[in-house]
Amino acid sequence: MSLASLNFFEIFSLPASFRVDVSSLEAQYRKLQAKYHPDRFLGAADSERVQALQLASLINDAYETLKSPLKRAAYLLNLNGVDPEEHNQGHLEGSFLIRQMEMREDLENLASEENLVGLDKLKVDTEREKDSVLDQFEYSFNAGELSNSKSLYNQLQFLFKLLEEINRVEEKLLDY
Amino acid sequence: MRKRAVGIDLGTTNSLVAVSSEGHPHTLCDHDGHCLVPSVVHYGAEGKITVGAQAVALGALDAANTISSVKRLMGRGAEDIDYDLPYAITPDPEGGMPAIQTAAGQQSPVEVSAEILKVLARRGEEELGGELDGVVITVPAYFDEAQRQATKDAARLAGIKVLRLLSEPTAAAVAYGLDKKQEQTVIIYDLGGGTFDVSLMRLEKGVFKVLATGGDAALGGDDLDRAIMGWIAAEASLQDDPNYETINRLAAVARQAKHALTDADQTTVEFGQWSATLTRDQFNSLVDGLIEQTIKACRRVLRDAGVDASEISDVVMVGGSTRTPRVREKVGEFFQTEVHTEIDPDQVVAVGAALQADVLVGNKYGDDILLLDVIPLSLGIETMGGLIEKIIPRNTTIPVARAQQFTTYKDGQTAMSLHVLQGERELVSDCRSLARFELKGIPPMVAGAAVIEVTFQVDADGLMEVQAKELSTGVASSIVVKPSYGLGDADIEQMIKDSYASAASDKEQRALQESRVEAQRIIEALESALEENGKELLSAEEYETLVSGMRSLQDTIKNDDSDAIRDEAEALNEASLVFAGRRMDTQIKSALTGHTLEEYE
Question: Which residue, of A39, B240, B414, B576, has the greatest Cβ tally within 10 A?
């Protein structure tokens, strides 16, 4: 058995589910890094140092993937044989597409009006919607509805991206 | 035996070295009690090199041959230097670091830094009574790959074994022992002579993690001085365009006034015939804009990490400029907390580096901390139209590896060129070019059939390696590129050779010594590994091969042939690869099993 052949959940001895116990993830992460970080191999043979470097990199990658709900969702879909990036418009609900366009338009208007109050409200609404879709994803994924899960994942992608853009606009207006 | 390790803070304005014995660190001072070594190197006509305070003194008369703030040139091209330097530089035609013109010939910024490092290392050797086993050198958290590589090259040139390049804020947090507390989020506010650096760190149960970094590579205490200089120039109606000597004098007067205002409410400023009173309030209003710039960077960092100012439990002040009361006041106000100033802000980074050097070299076991850093700027590659595709986003924890797949776009295409860059901007022209290389030997196929996987590996020091593999044929051709801004490995080798040219036998001795140390290290590592689980993991034949390889190398070490020692050590290392792999696997197995056991106990 090699660490490289384990999936990210197995690396941290966690069940492959959407809900992750963050404290055990972090505890396991620290434990593994404490063992494999290249700093622990400064006096070792070159070959062991190279492997420590690769393992520590893998552990970091696995940790960041499982820590982020969006990356975790994509990873779970991948594990179940669904390519989350595959474009399949049929799965995107028409109503959500329209909603996407509306939200983008709102953001553009708020940006040009320099309306910080409105921007804040949009942010809160988007956060709330994101949380709700995260719950739906969990429910759908647990029920084994992979194609619905993928469509929810695509909604999440949009919402996370929109939040980033809202933050960027806010930063610009507040001159960070 | 206790190993000799020191921590070095290689600063823009000042540098210093510290040691730690039994967890008690202290900085090393010269015979006159001066701990700070000004990061200034003077090159005399007869090739005489002077470093530190004496170089500063020589600089007053010979500015053109006195190199200061060389850290700003590290890993930078001539086009990055948009400010005046008192010495002449020649741009590198290939876009590397500029050469500095001195009376002792051209010097690269790496060579100048190496001179400073040598002085510090010597101080450490004198204190510890022998050659150093390892050194931790600190770098600003935002140093990019090229700057880190240049720093490591300088150490190599100075004959120093680097245990780790440690980011300055991490070192400062270590110095304050913030790791001893439970989970917390801290800010390291570092306003040095010429740079400002703010880092947000999460410290928990022995793991230090830099969550976000920001700052301004061209903002520091010198700017506070400059604000006063501007005030003097205006008040005293000095003519524009003064010469360097005048500026130097003006700077000294300004610095003096700034220092006086640390304790006093007002001070008398004299320049030539002119004199006036500068109050602290006046001074505050002169520098508030600059301090506000630093606060802005603090906001930015909080935002990057998604942390609120109220969540910050500790603010550590680093850098001489944080002695300015206004800076402490404004920073404390923003984070709504008292700021840490108990350890001398000039020494705190070196102290932390010394503590960590002591751990890494193997003197201290048990409660050793693990320092996880992040990559300060995104790594990406050039795509069509001069745009950048980010492969590793900034603030990703290192070490990190990311693979990206590319396909050929022409039938029968056998080569592909890649351009690796670092930076946050969208356009190639706005980012720092780290390496360009060509992948050759791709098997000719129809367009799109060849799949090349390129892996970007960033190590714990923030240094990058790129590997490429052709996947579709199964025949993996792999290359490794170690970019080194402006200085190739050959250049460094040459510089090392040059520096020993005057004593050729010294050089041979050194090579021999190095090869012996390296061979001994390999033997020791292998010996203890074999003892631990060699019999379990290896067949009798494999075991015998390694043991006889080891014996033969032990014999070779006794001869004075460094090439032979090196070759044989290399071969033995190669032969132990499989063993190393199996050992890693068992360690993982025991780590995971250990976890399960604990859970059900």
Answer: B576
Judged by CB atoms closer than 8 Å, whether chains meet at B591 and A32 is answered as: yes
CB contact under 8 A, A58 and B401: yes
| Closest chain A residue to the Cα of B356, Cα to Cα | A39
Where chain B has pLDDT below 50, the residues are 484, 486, 500-503, 594-601
Residues 175-204 of B with CB under 8 A from A: 204
Is B9 known to be catalytic?
yes
Judge if A63 and A105 occupy the same domain: no
pTM over 0.80: no
Shared-domain flag, residues A40 and A99? no
Closest CB from B303, B529, B587 relative to A35: B587
Of A67, A102, A118, the residue at which a domain comes to its end is A67
Which bin fits A171, alpha (ψ -120 to 50), beta or left (φ > 0)? alpha
Residue A83 in domain:
no
> Do residues B67 and B379 touch, judged by C-beta distance below 8 A?
no
Residue B287: HSE in the Cβ half-sphere, 13 Å Cα cutoff = 31
A23 within domain boundaries: yes
| Distance from C-alpha of B357 to C-alpha of B367, rounded to nearest angstrom | 14
Q: Residues of B numbered 218-237 whose beta carbons fall under 8 angstroms of chain A's beta carbons: which are they?
A: none
| Residue A129 pLDDT level (bands cut at 50, 70, 90) | very high
Residue B328 half-sphere exposure, CB side, CA atoms within 13 Å?
Answer: 17
Range of the structural domain that residue A136 is part of: 89-175
- Residue A55: half-sphere exposure toward Cβ, Cα within 13 Å: 29
